[in-house]
Design a protein that fits this description.
Helix content: 55-70%
GO cellular component, one term: membrane
Largest sheet: 2 strands, antiparallel
Number of strands: 2
Shape: elongated
Mean pLDDT: 80
Pfam family, one: FxsA
Structural class: mainly alpha
Strand content: 5-15%
Distance between the termini: 26 Å
Radius of gyration: 27 Å
Order of helices and strands: HHHHHEE
Organism: Geodermatophilus poikilotrophus
Number of helices: 5
Protein name: UPF0716 protein FxsA
Keywords: Membrane, Transmembrane, Transmembrane helix
Strand order of the largest sheet: 1-2
Low-confidence stretches: 140-150
Length: about 170
């Protein structure tokens, strides 16, 4: 895994250099440097604003003792987006903006979610669909005593079947 990360980081850096050279050839070196400084300043401003909003949401959820849920993921995406915006390079700025702006953050969250789920073992992937049907009738308890779970003279019986989308492979030797 470490090798893949190093290769991806190297390819990313090479792509950033290529884009910087192309932009410099298109608009000039001075304008390219100015644009790079402007996107860095924009990154700091967006990081401060969105980061404060995300931390406020986390504090509010903690104070109300609610699960943090999506707020933790948003805070992580904002941190990553801020770092990408602050670092020089236009590709990182585009990805950073996608992470920082609330209307596009769901796209990044969805892509990351799919990537994580695809790496999970089949048994841990969701969703598991459950089909159920209610059966009513005079069913007694295990000893035939007639005791019912519902307490109203009719038993509460739920029959179900768990259906998996993909077959589970037997991994015994």
């Amino acid at each position: 895994m470490g090798h893949r990360v190093r290769v991806l980081a190297g390819l990313w850096a090479m792509a950033e250099v290529v884009v910087l050279v192309l932009v410099a050839a298109w608009i000039g070196v001075g304008w390219t440097l100015l644009a790079t400084l402007a996107t860095t300043a924009l990154g700091w401003a967006l990081l401060a604003r969105q980061g404060a909003r995300a931390l406020g949401e986390l504090r509010e959820r903690a104070r109300e003792r609610r699960p943090s849920g999506r707020a933790v993921g948003d805070a992580g995406l904002i941190a990553v987006g801020g770092v990408l915006m602050v670092l020089p390079g236009f590709l990182g700025d585009v990805v950073g903006l996608l992470c920082l702006l609330p209307p596009t953050r769901f796209l990044v969250r969805g892509l990351l979610g799919r990537a994580v789920v695809s790496r999970l073992p089949v048994g841990l992937r969701g969703p598991v669909r459950v089909r159920s049907a209610r059966a009513e009738g005079p069913l007694g308890g295990p000893s035939g005593s007639g005791a019912h779970a519902s307490g109203f003279g009719r038993p509460l019986v739920i029959e179900g079947e768990v259906v998996r989308e993909e077959p589970v492979r037997d991994e015994r030797p």
